[in-house]
Amino acid sequence: MNTVPPTLDARFRAEAAAEGLLDVAYDVLESPVGDLFVGVSDRGLCVISYDTDAEDQAERLARGFGSRVLRSPRPIEPAKRQLHEYFEGKRRRFDLDVDLRLSRDFGRVVLEELGRVPFGEVTTYGALAARAGKPRAARAVGTIMNRNPIPIVLPCHRVVGADGALVGYAGGLDRKQQLLRLEGALLA
Known about the structure:
By secondary structure, this protein is an alpha/beta fold. It contains seven helices and six strands. A hairpin with a 2-residue loop joins strand 2 (36-41) and strand 3. It starts with 5 loop residues before the first helix and ends in a 5-residue tail after the last helix.
């Protein structure tokens, strides 16, 4: 049971964020593809998840980024605004720093290449593997896409099978289809 008045709680969270006392600030926002758990570190956006169980997400973030993880909406505002603009069809490219420090080696290279796939276009797992320097690593790219910590902003929904089929999206194929439809990139 929470015994702290809501205004005091909100002030505490805002002050903790303003003073740089958080390893990760997060909030949950509504979107056309369902609620999204969004987190930012001092280096940038570090998570977007369709799993909005704040306790589980905060625990996972604490293991990777540090124990000072707190729901604090203010640091999330730039990401929230840009996500809303994207869903409204007013934004084609995100202008947010991303924190990929938990991604290693080939995975980081793949995610960086993924960020270069333009709005409204698709690529294949094999083509993305080749762009990342390992043309035979399409299956590994699939695994990396499934574990993408920042879907939508790092657009793994734009990656399709070699035959153009919509396959493998951690948020579910319905969401992948919805995102591609929003971008006008659905294949026939």
